[in-house]
Specification:
By secondary structure, the chain is mainly β. It contains five helices and 36 strands. It has one domain: Maltoporin, Chain A. The protein has a 22-stranded antiparallel barrel. Strands 3-8-9-6-7 form a five-stranded mixed sheet. Strand 27 and strand 28 form a beta hairpin. The longest helix is centred in the first third of the chain and has 10 residues. It is globular, with a radius of gyration of 24 Å.
Length: 634
């Protein structure tokens, strides 16, 4: 690894260029990425190679997305070490992604630098993101509250949408498959002089299948027995320009909307209409040889409306404005200081009335923060320290920090030790949800006195490169206090309360091999998530997960497959109900007729395994899909 060492120069033009292209606090030109797929920005909010980072990081590149023929973001994330995926059925169903035994609300999700976690549920709507409009995904495992503030307790997932690079080109994608699934997409983008542009649109629709089964609480009668269809229309656009004096300015915009059908506790016909938009602006300028400044501003909005037999029922929406200013200061040959300020404001739009204890309506809150980070690079070691202070309008101040130290070892190995503090902010649902009795009989109400969850995390990683092999082994322990759990009150309503403590220990192993025309990737995760008050295993966490990818090229033909497996898990906190483990296999193949036309064939769940990742919801059965991709030479 020593050949990849970095020193901070007093004339850091190469690093500044990398930061301008790849960073801007999440605004990245990822396809270019200095021609290095390993360049990441999420781990430190500065451009680094994976070798240089002092955190466990996985990068899913555009090449990976195309090789796997992925139709969902959760499919891509399901093979990442330490990442757990839960879905309430097939395409368009509610999807949750968690890292290292935490829950999805404890994972921060960014799209082009903008937070997309809902301010009401705390979760991100992964099911509506289109992989064909994604350039790269960076997954950082372990807390990053010292850089991003609230919710980065388990880790951070950052998604970068497509950009225009190289000669302007047109791309048309058309596919069809099982369950009346159809897809049509078109995009055009490229670079003219120093201006990059891209625009793409996509339509995905499927008749689906019946998601729910008899293991859940949903009645197996009436409309609950029909197939659950899904339709998604999306568009993505970006434009940026670099001036001769070093200033780069850019804008990105994306919009998704559609409809998904689902089952509920009644036998009526249920469906949801959704829409989500993201707008982000950035500007980056090297002030002089020692200082580079970046400014970002953004707006995001997501809205989901439930309908019962055509009648509008519940509306949950989050809109968010944000701004950040970062300065990279190269104050010595081997020292880089990053200082910045962040601001964002959440506003919710709901059918229900959210109020505090005084009866005042609660539908918005702001958060502002300041942070500082210093990275030191020496001959055979690296050191990083960061500190951040967040101030919320609702739940007060939180101070977080991180310390990481990496040492080069013989035989291209490296050992890294880290400690970090993090917190998860209570959502509007946690704080202010009105008293509600659901058709199933479940009762719930918010608690304005609930406090943020807090965590201390320890990491020890050994990584290395040996010939054609890249590998990593990580031990971690995450101690969480004031864990928010629902407890029944004297009035019979379940309410969020800071009563639990958790200790999550684990091991993550990963190995990638490139031998001639073979590409092999494997990962194994072992996690021990315990409620320290009861000594019970935390619910909905599988202790073991395994994934194996294999791909081989034979000239114009390529073939590949993915094996995923996970162990049993408990569905309740008392550990009396279990969800069975499972293993699935997918196969894929592609043939490139010429430089313009390619056909892809994919077999999902080849063994037609019947399994669940969420109790009561059947995961996708066997299906075959064919896609044609046409890239005419204009």
């Amino acid at each position: 690894m020593s050949e990849n060492r970095r020193t901070f120069s007093k004339h850091p033009l190469a690093i500044v260029t990398a930061a301008v292209i790849s960073a801007a606090a999440g605004m990245a030109q990822a396809e270019e990425a200095i021609k290095l797929d390993s360049v990441v920005v999420t781990a430190s909010r500065t451009a680094q190679s994976i070798d240089e980072t002092l955190a466990p990081v996985t990068v899913i590149t555009r090449q990976d997305i195309e090789r796997k023929q992925a139709t969902s973001v959760t499919e891509l994330l399901s093979t990442v070490p330490g990442v757990s995926v839960t879905t309430n059925g097939g395409p368009g169903s509610r999807s949750s992604v968690s890292i290292r035994g935490t829950v999805s609300r404890q994972t921060l999700v960014l799209v082009d630098g903008q937070r997309i976690n809902s301010a009401t549920s705390g979760e991100a709507s992964f099911q509506y993101l289109d992989p064909d409009q994604i350039e790269k995904i960076e997954v950082v495992r372990g807390p990053r509250s010292s850089l991003y503030g609230a919710d980065a307790l388990g880790g951070v997932i950052q998604i970068f949408t497509r950009n225009g690079l190289g000669k302007p080109s047109l791309r048309v994608r058309a596919g069809t498959g099982s369950r009346k699934t159809n897809e049509l997409g078109v995009s055009y983008g490229g670079t003219v002089d120093k201006t990059k542009f891209f625009v793409g649109a996509n339509l995905f629709e499927t008749a689906g299948y019946n998601f729910s089964n008899k293991d859940g609480y949903i009645s197996q009668k009436g409309a609950n027995l029909d197939d659950d269809a899904y339709r998604n229309k999306s568009i993505n656009a970006s434009l940026s320009h670099e001036y001769d004096f070093g200033l780069e300015v850019g804008v990105k915009a994306s919009h998704r909307q559609g409809k998904n059908e689902f089952d509920n506790s009644t036998t009526d016909y249920y469906h949801q209409q959704f829409k989500a938009s993201i707008l982000s602006l950035h500007a980056s300028l090297p002030i002089n040889d020692l200082v580079t400044s970046r400014f970002d501003a953004g707006y995001s909005n997501n809205e989901a409306t439930d309908y019962i037999s055509g009648r509008k029922d519940d509306l949950f929406g989050t809109s968010r404005i944000s701004a950040s200013l970062l300065n990279d200061i190269f104050w010595a040959d081997n020292q880089m200081l990053t200082a910045g300020v962040d601001y964002y404001k959440d506003k919710i739009d709901t059918t229900d009335k959210f109020e505090n204890k005084s009866g005042k309506k609660e539908n918005s809150r702001y958060n502002y923060a300041a942070f500082v980070q210093n990275q030191s690079s020496f001959d055979s070691s690296d050191f990083l320290i960061s500190l951040r202070s967040d101030k919320s309008e609702v739940y007060g101040s939180n101070l977080t920090g991180n310390v990481s130290f990496g040492i080069e070892l013989p035989r291209n190995m490296r050992v890294i030790a880290s400690y970090g503090k993090a917190f998860r902010a209570p959502t509007f649902n946690d704080l202010y949800f009105p008293k509600t009795t659901y058709p199933s009989g479940y009762k719930y109400v918010g608690n304005p006195d609930v406090k943020p969850e807090k965590a201390d995390n320890y990491d020890l990683e050994l990584r290395g490169k040996t010939g054609l092999f890249n590998w990593s082994a990580v031990l971690f322990e995450n101690n969480i206090e004031d864990l928010i759990a629902t407890e029944p009150g004297s009035d019979g309503f379940n309410t969020p309360t800071n009563i639990n403590k958790a200790k999550i220990r684990g091991l993550e192993l990963s190995l990638s091999v490139h031998i001639k025309e073979w590409t092999l990737n494997t990962s194994y995760s072992l996690v021990d998530p315990k409620d320290t008050e009861t000594d019970k295993v935390l619910a909905k966490r599988a202790k073991q997960q395994f994934a194996f990818d294999a791909d081989r090229a034979f000239g114009k033909l390529s073939v590949g497959g993915t094996l995923r497996a996970q162990s049993d898990s408990y569905t309740n906190s008392s550990n009396t109900q279990e969800l069975a483990g499972f293993a699935t296999v997918d196969f894929r193949s592609a043939y490139k007729f010429d430089n313009e036309l390619k056909v892809e064939v994919k077999l999902v769940n080849a063994l037609d395994k019947s399994y669940q990742t969420a109790k009561g919801y059947t995961a996708e059965p066997r299906g075959t899909f064919v896609t044609f991709i046409w890239t005419p030479q204009l």
